[in-house]
Amino acid sequence: MGVKGIPVTKHETGLITTRLDEVIRWGRKNSLWPLPFGTACCAIEFMGAVSSVFDISRFGAELVRFSPRQSDLLLVAGTINYKLGPVLKRIYDQMCEPRYVISMGACACSGGFYDNYATIQGIDQIIPVDVFIPGCPPRPDAVLDAVVKLQEMIDKEPQRRPRQPERERERPR
Ligand code: SF4
Predict the structure, then answer these.
(1) How many CB atoms lie within 10 A of CB 77?
(2) Class of the 33-150 domain?
(3) Domain coordinates of the chain in residue numbers?
(4) Residues in the chain with pLDDT < 70?
(5) How far does the centroid of ligand 1 lie from the alpha carbon of residue 111, in Å?
(6) pTM of the model
């Protein structure tokens, strides 16, 4: 076994061989580029997660980007109302595959205590979510935990991640 779970074979010649898909998965999971879609207080907790105290860069996910074309991890932190829903969907659609989504906090996961006509009761109604973080607000440690869980998921997925319509069909009803 080689670096961080990548199986390698060392030959007497000094050559090291491994499988291409293992290397791609290893690269993907250790270089997530998050796009923080912060709309409320949970975004402040995300700032804590990227600060030097919690240091998300230990997990290779510190390169925050504000362009969907440069990101592969959409991190939704805060309340999403129906007016904002199409904006979130468009940003998700503009991200290249493979793309991942973390829903941070009760508001993004389920609407939280905003059980009213204006608030979407969970962003999974409009985009697929890979990891949910419960809590109001979740601590920065919970964000790190979600990143680790996502890395474990990436480690197990096939080299070609199904595109969104295929993933939609796979979701349990
Ligand atoms: S879950 Fe709580 S902390 Fe997070 S955005 Fe909603 S009200 Fe704010």
Answers:
(1) 27
(2) alpha beta
(3) 33-150
(4) 1-8, 10-12, 159-173
(5) 9
(6) 0.86
